[in-house]
């Protein structure tokens, strides 16, 4: 596994979470609050799952279970 993968996972988690907030915020202009939260929830969940995956991979790399290459 390359170190660059951690950066990609972290950036992907941030972008998905930000997109979830934007979608739920902008959709509140058109639909009710509950529906807006329902529309943004999958993006927020995806961001949270990517963050958890990055954390698990970091722990596995730190403990030596997962080999970490320094190449980009």
Could you please describe the fold and organization of this structure?
The chain is an all-alpha fold and 72 residues long. Helices cover 76% and strands 0% of the residues. The chain is built from two helices and no strands. α1 (4-27) packs antiparallel against α2. The protein is elongated, with a radius of gyration of 16 Å.
Explain the layout of strands and helices.
Layout: H1 4-27, H2 33-63
Helix pairs in contact: 1-2
Quaternary structure classification: single chain
- The structure class reads mainly alpha
> What does the overall shape look like?
elongated
Main beta-sheet annotation: none
Fraction in beta strands:
under 5%
Which spans have pLDDT < 50 for at least 5 consecutive residues? Answer: none
Helical residue percent band: over 70%
- Intertermini distance: 10 Å
Query: Could you tell me the mean pLDDT?
Result: 90
| Annotation, overall tally of beta strands | 0
Give helix and strand order, one letter per element, not per position. HH
Rounded radius of gyration (Å): 16 Å
- Helical element count? 2
């Amino acid at each position: 596994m390359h170190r660059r993968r951690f950066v990609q996972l972290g950036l992907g988690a941030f972008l998905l979470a930000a997109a979830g907030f934007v979608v739920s915020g902008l959709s509140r202009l058109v639909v009710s609050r509950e529906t807006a939260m329902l529309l943004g929830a999958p993006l927020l969940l995806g961001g949270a799952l990517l963050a958890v995956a990055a954390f698990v991979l970091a722990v596995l790399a730190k403990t030596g279970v997962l080999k970490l290459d320094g190449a980009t």
